[in-house]
Amino acid sequence: MTIALGVLAPVLSLLWLAFGSGLGHWARLVRDVLPQAALDTAVLLAGVGLLVLLIGTGCAWLVSTCDFPGRGVLHWALLLPLAMPTYIVAFAYLDLLHPLGPVQGALRWLLGFDSPRQFRLPDLRSMPGAIFVLGFVLYPYVYMTARAMFMTQPAHLMEAARSLGESRAGAFFRVALPLARPALAVGLSLALLETLNDIGASEFLGIRTLTVAVYTTWITRSDLAGAAQIASAMLLVVIALVLLERHGRRRQRFGSAQRMRAIQPRRLHGTAAWLASAAAALPVLVGFAAPALHLVWETVKRLRQGNGISGALIDSLLNTLGVAAGVTVVAVAAGLVVAWAIRAQGSTHDGARWQGRAATLGYAVPGTVLAIGLLTPALAADAALATLIGHPGLPLMGAGVVLVVACAIRFLAMPVGGIEAGLARIPPALEQAARLLGESTGGTLRRVHLPLLRPAIAASALLVFVDAMKELPATLLLRPANFDTLATRLYAEAARGTYEEGAIAALAIVVAGLLPVVLLARHGLSETTA
Amino acid sequence: MTARPRAPARATLALGATALTLLAAALPAHAAGEVTLYTTREPGLVQPLLAAFSAQNDIKVNTVFVKDGLLERVKAEGARSPADVLMTVDIGNLVDLVDGGVTQPVQSAALQTAIPSNLRGSDGQWFALSLRARVLYADKSLPLTAFRYEDLANPRYKGKVCIRSGQHPYNVALVSAMIAHDGEAKAEQWLRGVKANLGRKATGGDRDVARDILGGICDVGLANSYYVGQLKGAKEGSDARKWGDAIKVVKPTFAQGGGTHVNISGAAVAKHAPQRANAVKLLEFLVSPPAQVLYAEANHEFPVRQGVALDPIIASSIGELKVDPLPVAEIARYRKQASALVDKVAFDQ
Question: Which of A52, A133, B49, B123 is the most exposed place for a label (fewest CB within 10 A)?
Fold first, then answer.
């Protein structure tokens, strides 16, 4: 309950900001800003949604049912784009695909043109460009859930379909895909929430989404109330996506009830095998390898020019790790409590369900908006505490506690969802047995559930850690004096207009994010096969 | 690894350690001989100036780089805010701080003599520290020597114009000045013309204008003057230098008044500044002749103080300015109207 209130505080303060000062600007916003922003957002969400479903499901199916050269590596490498913040990929692709970049340079050389004025590809800064970048970075959310689903789908269902005369494609579309639909809904909604939330990549590529509209309304029109009004309207979209995700999870529980023989991958030969390798390698190349190599190349260039790794960079790395660790601990602990409360009160209890849903809203509110909403309540609490202990300043803000709490609220959805799903897999009979044998509720949690939940906790902790490392908007607004993380350092370079100088910081974010993703990939995928 | 807490005890310990480290880092912020600066300017730009100030006065400068939400943060921090000096770019942002009630008036003879009266708030609530002009970057081969802002809407440049988002404060200020000079109807017509001439979406940064001119995407574009110094002064052989070498700069003027549009970077003393005296000292230092020279050399900006030499690259590629006679505060007055106009013509779509 307290946690749900903590999460609701910024949302409530947002609503107060939105409607406390009248609807003066609303008419103009509705006329000039919202229709176009809503349309652009819808097109972007639709495009990214299609692309992530296509790539995520396609690759998951390919890897689950076929054996081809490179499958052993690709089946986890397909998760690597998770380590790439979308804004970094957008920067990298603008460099790579700019008329002055290597791709168009090579094309001109091949075609015999010697100036970009004679031959140019369409500009990346467009709707198709944004869909391309976001789709290839965010597909792992769908891949992850779809792959887990295909791995646990019983093979005999497919065999039955085949023996009834369905082709392989028919069996996929009429049996496997409908069965996987709940899992796809979960992955899709996460990818779409990230898209909706994104500010760096969309703004950089010139797409004026609702989130960007919230931002410009607040910053350039100095109209915080108007921004809060758009953000409140956006909450409706967000709630729809969260409900989609919940709906997916609800159905998912029935699907994974039985344990059966899983689908055995079929070995491909010749051209088909190589085509499969190429198809599964393409998303890894586009979503991870190309931008990562570009960062490595830029970093090497800077290092050779003598811009070494400064002490300040090491400091920001340590700060980043410290904040991410703190956020992970707080978010996972809170997630455990919320998921446990939902279970303890029974999933039929409306109050508990709504608290659970409220607790996951943070993920859905754009980071800056969440941070703004949190400012007033958090600093009021801080001032009260300061009065109590006789501190002259703002102790929680100054110590970064506000920052850690804000990020934990932002990412709470991941541990809540992950641990709830993990709890759902534990048969109530185990709990009843423990209670019958005289164990208390707390004891049951500690001695029965926690050991069984360890994989779910580890997986959500890794996800929170990676996302907290990349977090930018809330960190920018809420950090204490003289405190930089890798993301804020990179942003500072970009703000100075020298984002290529940020290559070292960007690479550090990617490398630091890589380890948890690899762990997650290997751990998560081997766990389900076992 | 921390991300996989096995026991609650270890988790609590890790959290406690994180909190303590952060607390330790934050506590000395209220010692004597310090001043805390909240800035929306990337600190790297002002760091040489702050270092010189610290060395000269034995006052440590704490910085927080708050990109957006400076006003909201200081407001929410209220009377306990550690902020002494608030520094930002764009007159609109400065006036917002004053209107938001987070600044206090400062009476200082040093500030009043150094800064011309149209470049500071009449009641000492804000002070300009440097100037930047919104100039035309043009492909080197174009036979252009003079240019009017109004020309940017000329169909002659169809598909040839690059500019950043119309909602960016630098462009909003330019449109405000256009409204002040020509009225809203003409400004709207002009914006529609420029929009029709765009060679790509109105996005990215000012340096992208030079880059996209070299990339053949456009021939002309508007951008701030100090980037010229960054680009043309970049290391030989670097990408930035290639972009800089591809352009020449023309100082555009308004048809009315005949001057070039400038904006400011500036600062104010925070309303609840715990170190008010040090805050004023820092502002006075920033407009002193040596600091103004540093502003010009390190940032390639135009000094606000009369008689300070320009940065050599700026002097040779842009030269002295004939500034638009419109008072800076007048620009701030039209900024909401300008921003609404940018929306109305869907400039960024």
Answer: B123
Nearest-by-CA chain B residue for A302: B238
**Quick check: A330 and B26 CB within 8 A?**
no
Q: Is there a single domain that holds both residue A270 and residue A335?
A: no
A116 touching B (Cβ < 8 Å): yes
Q: Which of A267, A294, A321 is the last residue of a domain?
A: A294
- Residue with the bigger pLDDT between B129 and B118: it is B129
Contact at CB, B201 and A125, closer than 8 angstroms: yes
User: Of A215, A399, A458, which has the smallest distance from its Cβ to B26's Cβ?
Assistant: A399
What integer is the mean pLDDT of B127-137?
96
Q: B182-200 as b/e, with b when 16 or more CB fall inside 10 Å?
A: bebeebbebbbbbbebbbb
pLDDT, position B24? 44
The structure tokens listed for A360 are 């996951």
Residues A468, A328 contacting (CB under 8 angstroms): yes
Looking at residue B28, its pLDDT comes to: 45
Domain that holds residue A499: 309-530
CA distances from B1 to A331, A458, B10, B179 (A): 16, 10, 11, 59
For residue A14, tell me if it sits in a domain: no
Average pLDDT for runs of 10 along chain A of length 530: 68 74 68 85 95 95 90 89 88 88 87 82 89 95 85 75 81 80 82 83 85 77 76 77 71 50 79 92 94 90 72 85 93 87 65 62 71 81 85 82 89 82 78 83 80 82 84 82 84 67 82 80 52
Q: Quick check: B227 and B133 in contact, CB under 8 A?
A: no
Q: For the domain B132-261+318-344, what is the CATH code?
A: 3.40.190.10
pLDDT recorded at residue B347: 92
Q: Do B230 and A498 touch (CB under 8 A)?
A: yes
ipTM topping 0.85: no
Q: Is A305 on the interface with B (CB under 8 A)?
A: yes
Distance from CA of B224 to the nearest CA of A (A): 11
Residue of chain B minimizing CA distance to A319: B22
Q: How confident is the model at residue B154 (pLDDT cuts 50, 70, 90)?
A: very high
Using a CB-CB cut-off of 8 Å, the residues of chain A touching B36 are 481
Instruction: Give the separation between CA B82 and CA A394, rounded to whole angstroms.
Output: 8
Mapping DSSP onto H, E and C, the string for A481-516 reads CCCCCHHHHHHHHHHCCCHHHHHHHHHHHHHHHHHH
Residue of chain A minimizing CA distance to B77:
A379
